[in-house]
Amino acid sequence: MKRNFMYRTIFLLLFIHINIQPIFAQTQSMQIKTDLSFFSEKFLGAKNGHRHPNKSMIKFSISPDLDNLSSKLSLNYSRNEKLTLDGSYIQHTSGILTFGAGLIDRHWSFSNNTSLVLSQNARPTESIYLKLENKFKYDWLPSKANWSLEVFNGFNEGSLNNNKSMLLGTRATLSPYEGLDFELIQTSQWGGEGYDKGISALGSALFLDSNSGSNSNINKMAGFGISYLIPSNTIPLRIYGQAIGEDEAGSLPSCYAYLAGLEWSNSKSKYPIILGFETVDTRIDETEHGYCGPNTMYNNNIYHYTNYGKSMGAAIDTEGTSLDLYVRSQISEKINIEFATKSIVINDNNWSGHRLSSNRQLGYISSLSISWVKNKINFNGDIYKQTFNLDKANIKSGYGVGFSSSIIF
């Protein structure tokens, strides 16, 4: 019922938005986009994610915008998931404030590949949200110093005994000067059938200690991230990392999973090259007081950190590691190429309840991608290989090919 209400609300708001546009023709714009993708086999992904478990998917989106009001209606069709509205939203911006509703993807990380807390591995949540963005205007700070804040509350499918619960997220970013970025992140799973959905629970989900008391059911994850781009006249290298605590101790995060990476770029050549290394570790040791331990990342005794059965964080899910090497290059004005290879351990503790595999898996994923872009037309081709099986996700080792295209009108 709640999901249908959200869908009906988005359709109604978009219908009103589209039909009032002629009144404001002087400030309107319209974009229409179609996407078609096909993959011969399912695989985990050399980047992040196995969100699309289908061999083919068709997307159609229309994005009508006014001066302060923007929206997108996205229709996605696949054989298994049928028709979804993933990617649809409507939002209003006034000054530094934006508020809206929809099913938008969130990638909360300075990594371009993955995130420990909110990535594009799982489908987006149905949510309402608020964003603040501004530049500092103080003389003692650089002119490019800025900050942002995003808060949302949405619904997860299947995270609470195969029923819906709510997910509250907050991310604050700070850039004291160009090239240096910090982030503070918190997500709280709360509410759902049998649990408090009132003001007291909301306050605990946002600010208060939720380890004890009437709102001890709330599952919080929190942490921080950093990115630093060394000045190019020294060495064109970006260093970044993220640490997310699975548990809470004294209102502070504890029991961390980690992400770290290096990214070198050669921007002085006619066609830039990017070389990167990245590692992710979602294994958590038991504390000296007996808390946390193996398989606790993305798992809670009440809530699973999933949407439609897939981790909302790293694609390797709990108790996994990955080491990634990738090279991206623009070899002409129209052609880009990327090679990526990743060493992966899945279910390192051999836990039968793991969402991807019932036993430990070790292997590699490699992929070669070529994209051709001209004006508003984009074609992509992929060749990939995975050397291990994931029985729970119905992913088998072997080779595969993929094709995708998009056209903007």
Give a quick rundown of the structure.
The protein is mainly beta and 409 residues long. It contains 2 helices and 21 strands.
Q: What tags apply to this protein structure?
A:
single chain; 409 residues; mainly beta; 18-stranded antiparallel barrel; 2 helices; 7% helix; globular
Question: How does this model look, in words?
Answer:
With 409 residues, this protein is mainly β. Helix content is 7%, strand content 50%. The model is unreliable at 20-27 (pLDDT under 50).
* Shape annotation: globular
Count every beta strand, where a strand is a DSSP E run of 2 or more residues: 21
Rg computed from alpha carbons, rounded to a whole number of angstroms: 22 Å
Largest beta-sheet characterization: 18 strands, antiparallel, barrel
Measure the end-to-end span: 35 Å
Secondary structure tally, helices: 2
Mean pLDDT: 86
Helix-and-strand structural type: mainly beta
Helical content (DSSP H or I, runs of 4+): under 10%
- Contiguous low-pLDDT stretches (5 residues minimum) are 20-27
Can you write the helix and strand succession as a string?
HEEEEEEEEEEHEEEEEEEEEEE
**How much strand content do the residues show?**
over 45%
What's the arrangement of secondary structure elements?
Layout lengths: L1 H19 L8 E11 L16 E10 L3 E10 L3 E3 L4 E6 L2 E6 L23 E10 L10 E15 L2 E15 L2 E11 L8 H8 L12 E11 L7 E13 L2 E15 L6 E9 L24 E2 L2 E2 L9 E10 L4 E12 L14 E14 L2 E10 L11 E11 L1
Antiparallel strand pairs: 1-2, 1-21, 2-3, 3-4, 3-5, 5-6, 6-7, 7-8, 8-9, 9-10, 10-11, 11-12, 12-13, 13-14, 14-17, 15-16, 17-18, 18-19, 19-20, 20-21
